[in-house]
Amino acid sequence: MHLPDDACFLSISFVKSIFNPHFDTENVILTTRGYDNLEITLIFDDGGHVQAPILHRVYQRYAFYNAVNEVHAKSGFIIIGYVNPYNY
To answer: Which of 10, 54, 57, 84 could form a disulfide with 69 if both were Cys (CB 3.0 to 4.6 A apart)?
Structure first.
């Protein structure tokens, strides 16, 4: 996936594990500073190697706010904190 040069990955957060009898699958969120946050489904083989990263969902950035380096996933809900940039 191509992002602008100034995109900075802040964190990778585990969201949930999805049951599949053939593969191990997990959802993670990539938090970026100044851009949208991405939820990706990772499919692993028996050896623990990623077989297919699938873009599952995009959480669009709200206005000019920046995401903070803290994501919580509980009870099916995802909480992503946002703050005003310093110059605002």
So the answer is: 10
